[in-house]
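>> received
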Amino acid sequence: MQVISTIAELRARLGNERTIAFVPTMGNLHEGHLNLVRQAREHGSCVVASIFVNPLQFGPSEDFDRYPRTLEADCAQLHGLADVVFAPPANEIYPAQQTVFVEPPPIASELCGATRPGHFRGMATVVLKLLNIVQPHAALFGKKDYQQLHIIRRMVSELNLPVRIVGGETVRAADGLALSSRNQYLSAGERGEAVFLYRTLQGMRQAILQGERDFERLQERAVEALAARDWLVDYVAVRNQSDLQPASPVKDDLAQRELVILAAAQLGNTRLLDNVEVCLVD
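>> returned
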């Protein structure tokens, strides 16, 4: 496995590869990331993982400075899974002040975008840069960041990028908590409470499968249940998988029958994100 820090060296290394599968990360790797890297082997003869904490997608009051940077440990975990690790310094990706950005679709101002203005613009811009640098045939992103995955798919489609986007299933701890690099911010007590977010979404999923169609009331009850346990809730939302627009209660509209329940909420100082898909198609 090679660890490469410059674009020129990476392009020279990948120039003769037949098929490339790419997994972009911000490092501090956990089993969710590693599972994507394992899946990448099914999509390319050369597997590239990147490790880059992107400053453009952090707001001024967010955790960019304290976001864990564990390059040596990350490379040890990737050994035997990836062929190349691309770990550039910030001035390699942004050699000058960035003045050209990807303008994401309107959905980027909703859900996570409502409380993180500019986040998806920064994310989409760096993903486009990385796709242009690596030029993979396939790129893999986790479904835990469902809105991010949707925006990346839209960007790739509308900008005619020659890459296939593959969504990887969310990897969870034994109790159901979605794995995330930010989970390590949780105290021992908060870690025990954190799974309540997933359990809340699972309860909503069961209610929908059993015929509940008052999605607004379901959302309200979920917010109330979380708030009663001292969570600060950004949103709980039932949306269509296809476009992330609010789900309609009309049962017979086939376009409205593949749903996803998304949520973001803060527990203590840690913002947690999760979702569950709901398929109503017979």
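>> The mean pLDDT is 95.
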